[in-house]
């Protein structure tokens, strides 16, 4: 068993030995997903964690859709990365969802180890050499294919940068695929490589969802949408309105599920209303800004919300009065 200096205490074995290895784990009682996560935390609590042990734990888990389906979030246009467990910053465990024909770019794993397990369908992994300089002008050659493997249900594979680059894809035109990935240590950026030229581009990696919840993604999208819409408001109202939005989103950051649902619904309605009032489909579609507030809704406001609403009214009134004097 060879030890790599950059592995920070993790022992590595050859990829050929790891790929599809049927070890004694198959004879043991399979781990549930929660048991796997617990076992991984215990393994990484040691200073001399071995990648062989990590691989054995991943092999011990048998795919059970009832356990991982809450993390399986698909997108119609590209594969998704869905965080399952952060591993106390020592590893990331995530579920990747691959629609028909979806695939990754050719990429590296910066100072990290990757163990991948198939939970549903099939995935094709293609490995490549690192870019090789073609001449003194630092031009690189086309990446050379080292091998291609199709992985089926519950099969695993392993890679790190000493073994090359790779690309993963769902080659099926009819069936989606789901895989479980462990990365240690976690990384937030990687390099994506052009197959023809070998040129690399730095790429930030993000999560489509965390812990089975896409609400955080919806919140970010809604928040950014509202701030963009506010750019079309009069300057005085824009400043106060944007300040109010930021304060409200911050206040509700850790609210419960019921409050979060109400919060998102109300702000979504606000964004739709503001879109209509600003006439984003053309000036002829614009409507007067604002909306009459009934007494029932007004009584639901907190004191600070009433004060902020008053400030907005003063700002709007002052603007209208100024425009009236100018004319």
From TrEMBL:
Cofactor(s) the protein needs: Fe cation
Swiss-Prot/TrEMBL keywords: Dioxygenase, Iron, Metal-binding, Oxidoreductase, Thioether bond
Stored CDD domains: Complex1_LYR_SDHAF3_LYRM10 (cd20270), cupin_CDO (cd10548)
EC number assigned by the record: 1.13.11.20
Molecular functions (GO terms): cysteine dioxygenase activity; ferrous iron binding
Top-rank taxon, per record: Eukaryota
Pfam family of the protein (one): CDO_I
Chain positions of cross-link 3'-(S-cysteinyl)-tyrosine (Cys-Tyr): 114-183
Reactions mediated catalytically: L-cysteine + O2 = 3-sulfino-L-alanine + H(+)
Residues that hold Fe cation according to the record: 107, 109, 166
Record's cofactor remark: Binds 1 Fe cation per subunit.
Entry protein name: Cysteine dioxygenase
Organism the protein comes from: Habropoda laboriosa
